[in-house]
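My hope is that you will study the protein record below before we discuss the fold together.
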Amino acid sequence: MKKLAMLCLALVMGAGMTMAAKPAAEKKTVTTVFVTDIDCDHCAQKIMNNIPSLGKGIKDVQVDVVAKEVSVTYDAAKNSDQNIVKGLASLKVKAQPKTVAAK
């Protein structure tokens, strides 16, 4: 009986260590600036009024009409740049992630 109890205790401790060893999934927040073809406040309002069409995990959206840029902060586990480009396309806004020039 003692052997059975010790075996059960060892299994429980082993399972506990295995669960503790797995790192918790971190939420990675990403901010991407998209170059767009917007040119008026109406276009900016269309984007701001339809944020859910950009996909899941959107935390913040900033629209700069003068620079023709849309900055989107989102949870990388729930969304991607490609999905956001598709979401903007559904609003009839052409967009692509802004690339940083190498120095």
User: Anything to note?
Assistant: The two ends are 71 Å apart (CA to CA). The first helix runs from residue 2 to 21. The mean pLDDT is 85.
